[in-house]
Amino acid sequence: MGPSIVIVDDHPAIVDGVRAWCARAEPEIRVLASGARVEVALEEPAADAVVLDLQLGSGSPAYGDLARLVDAGRRVVVYSQHADSDTALRCLELGAATYLTKAEGPEHLIPALRAVVQDRPYTPPVLGGAMAADPRPDRPVLSEREREVLLAWFESDSKQLVAQRFHLSVKTVDTYIGRVRIKYADAGRPATTKAALVARALQDGLIDLAGL
């Protein structure tokens, strides 16, 4: 059985288009629900990923909705009309798994969904351009919660203790740490072990030897 998603978008034509692309995918990507409000995704915790439109009626980017989904431990693919680097990088900072523009279409959205549900990185053209223009291209941009969970894991003997500290599930802690690994892999500095992540954090000034 293929992966499952929820679509959060207030344009029916976009929703219908994404549904059709998912239905034609091999294996099929199941759309469990869709709607114009982020609650439709929060009410479907079984979905493997969320496709989120960044412009939900208010005229302003829905950064708050993105943050709510990320805090709930959801894998979020932002699918937006905005093609500027600042918006794309802001979404990564908030914890989005990847960022696509609607102009990039099914040839990127479907592979992005397949990668994201397997916790693998996917960098479509617009996001790749934004990351290339980042003045710190080799230093991943971690969200505040990703940084908190990562540092707490360094200080703890287990992910269970981190989960208890932040009132999260162990699965959610795994999700945050997995996102950090993906961001380092995207930056060309993979860190597949805890020791490697500690080394990266030392290199990037997230921690110091005294803190360890």
List keywords for this structure.
single chain, 212 residues, alpha/beta, Rossmann fold, 2 domains, 10 helices, 49% helix
Structure description:
This protein has 212 residues and is α/β, with parallel strands linked by helices. It has two domains: 4-132, Rossmann fold (3-Layer(aba) Sandwich), CATH 3.40.50.2300; 144-203. Helix content is 49%, strand content 11%. It contains ten helices and five strands, in the order E-H-E-H-E-H-E-H-E-H-H-H-H-H-H. The chain has a five-stranded parallel β-sheet with strand order 2-1-3-4-5, with helices on both faces. Strand 4, helix 4 (85-94) and strand 5 form a beta-alpha-beta unit. The termini are far apart. One of its GO terms (molecular function) is DNA binding.
